[in-house]
Amino acid sequence: ELSAVINGYIRQKEYEAAYRLFLFSLSDQERTLAGYIFNGGFEQILSGKPFDWQVRDRSGLEITFAGARDVGEGDSGATVRFLNTPVKNAALQQYVELPPGSYRISLIASARNLKLPKQLFWSIRCADPAGEIARFDIPEGTFNRRELSLDFAIGPSACPMQLLRLETAAIAESWRFRYVGTLVMHKLSIERVSS
Q1: Which of 42, 84, 36, 79 is nearest to 59 (CA)?
Q2: How far apart are CA 70 and CA 174, in angstroms?
Q3: If DSSP states are collapsed to H, E and C, what string results for 33-56?
Q4: Nearest-CA neighbor of 92 among 57, 144, 127, 141?
Q5: Percentages helix, strand, coil for the chain, rounded to the nearest 5?
Q6: Distances (CA, A) of 139 to 108, 110, 145, 156, 193
Q7: What is the domain range of residue 18?
Q8: Alpha-carbon dihedral of residues 155, 159, 165, 168, nearest 10 degrees?
Q9: pTM for this one?
């Protein structure tokens, strides 16, 4: 019910009111997960609200959340398992509200046999007017707890709300481009940096 009200504010382009309502609705436990990215450690607390992780139903992959509180440190985070099929569009997304300034998005990730024929990346898009601000590529292969980062900037008064999405560059679901392997995202964060 609260999600419908927040989404209504977003449709009316009242982004500040939507974000404030989201923050006021958080429990004490959920407040500990707040930051520029809500729940960047991918705890199993999913509210379905627009400023929390929204998992899209996607054929060709499975997404599971196992926060650090539930399992050993090595397995914490969100696991994306690709099922040797084509994957198109976004799998995971969250609205974020970043004021104008310079930022760094960072990801600590592990992968096993990751094959990404049409890329896999985090995009930061302006919600209104629509447009890509930054693209943060996930590498192929096998690696353990690799730290990846990208600096980007939000211009003054250009973009009051952004959409953070994990997506592919596939335009069509062609069987020539099959996604294979497992990606574990241990922690995703955005922090302000001096310009």
Answers
A1: 84
A2: 37
A3: CCCCCCCCCCCCCCCCCCCCCEEC
A4: 57
A5: 15, 45, 40
A6: 12, 10, 12, 31, 24
A7: 2-192
A8: -70
A9: 0.88
Q: Read off the pLDDT of residues 11-36 as tens digits, 9 standing for 90 and up.
A: 999 999 999 999 999 888 888 888 99
Q: Give the total number of structural domains in the chain.
A: 1
Tokens of 104: 């760094």
The Cα 166–Cα 44 span in angstroms is: 18
**Better pLDDT: 190 or 170:** 190
Written as one string, the DSSP assignment of 125-142 is EEETTEEEEEEEEPPPEE
CATH number for the domain spanning 118: value is 2.60.120.260
Query: Would you state the structure tokens that stand for residue 143, as one six-digit string?
Result: 């690696």
Q: What is the enclosing helix (H) or strand (E) of 190? A: strand 179-192
Residue by residue, DSSP assigns 109-129 as EEEEEEE-TT--EEEEEEETT
The secondary element (H helix, E strand) that includes residue 23 is helix 15-24
d(CA 26, CA 43): 14
Is 90 exceeded by the pLDDT of residue 181? yes
